[in-house]
Amino acid sequence: MKKGMINCLITALFLLVPVTLYAQGEIYKVVDKDGNVTFTDQRPSAGAQPMDLPPLSVIETDIQPPAPPPQTAQSAVGESEAPTPGDLRKQFRDFRITRPLQEETFWGTENAVVVTWASAQAIDPSMSVMVFVDGKPQKAPASGGVSLSLERGEHQVYAELRDERNRRIVTTETITFFVKQWSQNFNRPAISPRNR
Fold first, then answer.
1. Residue 115 and residue 157: Cα distance in Å, rounded?
2. What is the largest CA-CA distance in the chain?
3. Whole-number pLDDT of residue 19
4. pTM here?
5. Any domain includes 196
6. Are 99 and 174 within one domain?
7. 192 in a domain, yes or no?
8. What was the pLDDT predicted at 184?
9. Mean pLDDT calculated for residue range 65-89
10. Which residue has the higher pLDDT, 56 or 35?
11. Does some domain include residue 48?
12. Three-class DSSP labels, the chain
């Protein structure tokens, strides 16, 4: 059994040792006192003799490896021009909610509030926006805004710009706003000449 294992090790060594090692160096077989066999390119002792290794067999063939499928000019251009999420983050870093304003109060709108967003760069139609109102998500088209019907009180909204694969690119800051309605129990703000 040991002889078979040694033969396997020698065969494995021949497969693993590079061709240049055969041409430039010498291989020595070292057997320690426990019978463990080691192969090395370092001369283990002054009187050590290198092994006689058989020459390598090299077989030439005319078979060519298969060529990769050709890319059409359109697919090559499309792949090179597709922006990465990092590119999109740089491009849309100014993506923000434009309405409502921070701490804005909506009076007498019958609970209707329009949320809008924008960026200095035109937003590609393949992208989308996820609007979070009081923590609840709502999908929206990338450009424009959404009209919401909200109860009276304090609300928070933020938006995420997402790419065509629905990966989050940019998140806006959270905007807090208020919806209030006129009532007999709640005094209206006085109308000043400026508000007329």
1. 8
2. 113
3. 47
4. 0.52
5. no
6. yes
7. no
8. 57
9. 70
10. 35
11. no
12. CHHHHHHHHHHHHHHHCCHHHHHHCCCEEEECCCCCEEEECCCCCCCCCCCCCCCCCCCCCCCCCCCCCCCCHHHHHHHHHCCCHHHHHHHCCCCEEEECCCCCEEECCCCEEEEEEECCCCCCCCCEEEEEECCEEEEEECCCEEEEECCCEEEEEEEEEECCCCCEEEECCCEEEEEECCECCECCCCCCHHHC
Counted domains in the chain:
2
Residue 186 DSSP one-character state: B
Residue 98 maps to which CATH number?
2.60.40.10
The dihedral of CA 62, 68, 69, 72: what is its sign?
A: negative
Residues 89 and 179 in one domain: yes
Residue type, 44: P
74 three-state secondary structure? helix
Which residue is associated with the tokens 């909204």?
157
